[in-house]
Amino acid sequence: MADSANIEGIWQIESAELAGEIMPELVAHKIDVELAAGAYTVRFDGEIADRGTYDLAPHPAGQAITLNGLVGTNAGRTIPAICQIVDGQLHVCYGLDGIVPAAFESKSGTAHFLARYRRKVTK
């Protein structure tokens, strides 16, 4: 189960899909997310693309995480998601339609963005 202590850090996308469509690896591997002290930052190829805050709450599938965009592509949006850590990977399923996903899946016809992250090693 995820909590603020073990999800904090910088995470790089290993694989991702939106509405059942797999994101190309060349794009996915350029995206990382930093989670720290209730704040998140999304970087694409090292440049900040999105920044805001997050809150965690219990959820039957792991933890619910709610992102509140402040700056960038999601400024003014609230994005509910679920997350869990499995074998050292952070799995997050975002409900881009504003509805908390019930499971870690992204099917055609949904607005679910499913991402699997690995902790980024920093120098």
Strand coverage percent = over 45%
- Unreliable spans are none
- Give me the CATH fold name: Lipocalin
- What overall form do the CA principal axes indicate? globular
Top-tier CATH class: Mainly Beta
The termini sit apart by 28 Å
Tell me the strand order in the biggest sheet: 1-3-4-5-6-7-8-9
Count of separate structural domains: 1
Order of helices and strands: HEEHEEEEEEE
Oligomeric state, counting identical vs distinct chains: single chain
Q: How confident is the prediction overall: mean pLDDT?
A: 92
Helix content: under 10%
Rg result: 13 Å
Q: How many DSSP-defined strands?
A: 9
Number of helices: 2
SSE diagram, text form:
Blueprint (H helix, E strand, L loop, with lengths): L3 H4 L1 E10 L2 E2 L2 H4 L2 E6 L2 E6 L2 E13 L2 E11 L5 E9 L2 E7 L16 E8 L4
Antiparallel strand pairs: 1-2, 1-3, 1-9, 3-4, 4-5, 5-6, 6-7, 7-8, 8-9
Question: In a nutshell, what does this entry contain?
Answer:
Helices cover 7% and strands 59% of the residues.
Keywords:
single chain, 123 residues, mainly beta, Lipocalin, eight-stranded antiparallel β-barrel, 9 strands
Describe the structure.
The chain has 123 residues and is mostly beta strands. The chain has a single domain (4-119), classed as Lipocalin. Helix content is 7%, strand content 59%. The chain contains 2 helices and 9 strands, in the order αββαβββββββ. It has helices at 4-7, 25-28, and strands at residues 9-18, 21-22, 31-36, 39-44, 47-59, 62-72, 78-86, 89-95, 112-119. An 8-stranded antiparallel β-barrel has the order 1-3-4-5-6-7-8-9. The radius of gyration is 13 Å and the shape is globular. The chain starts with a helix and ends with a strand.
